[in-house]
Amino acid sequence: MSISKTIAAFLCAAAFCFAANDSTAKAQAPAQASTQAPAISQEEMLIFKTLLQTPLFKDNFVQSCTVQSMEWLGVNQADKTCKCAYDRLVRDGKFINQIMSSINGDNIDFEKWGFEFIEPCIPQNYPAETDNAFVKECLKAGDVDKATCECVLKSIKKDYTVRDLMKTAFEDQKKLEVDLMLKAAQCLSK
Predict the structure, then answer these.
(1) How far apart (Å, rounded) are the C-alpha atoms in residues 128 and 2?
(2) Could you give the CA distance from residue 154 to residue 125 in angstroms, rounded to a whole number?
(3) 51, 69, 182, 184: most buried, per Cβ within 10 A?
(4) What letter does residue 144 receive in the DSSP assignment?
């Protein structure tokens, strides 16, 4: 989940920076009476895409994404996933159009779109770090022991792939919470 949030944060920052520079130039032009934001030109899209492809943006994106993801994915898998996400960002024309649409004022749900975008980069199998992070988070609840948390994790791994688990967390968090509570109850009853 934090990978998707990282993507959204970087994209929004880049988009708003680009929009701010662009709006300064447009403010010098005569004001239009329209309440609709001006359309983004092909030149502006090319400039934005070029900015995304700079080594500085890539390095900052991958480093920030990796730091936020390594607890759940481990350093190597987080780095691999974040590099994959960056590569998809700069190659995906749909991404550029959605960023530009957000500059134009369209409502874009980066959280949901971010997951669809990052999903192919998520590992197929649960890294050991995911297991450890899950148990650690589970224990924070304070009312369950380590054995119960490990039992819940085993049940989750039986019912969800990593991608399915993340997709459910993004698309239907209530469903996932109920499923986790049921799994915890089953583990406690053993």
Answers:
(1) 18
(2) 13
(3) 69
(4) S
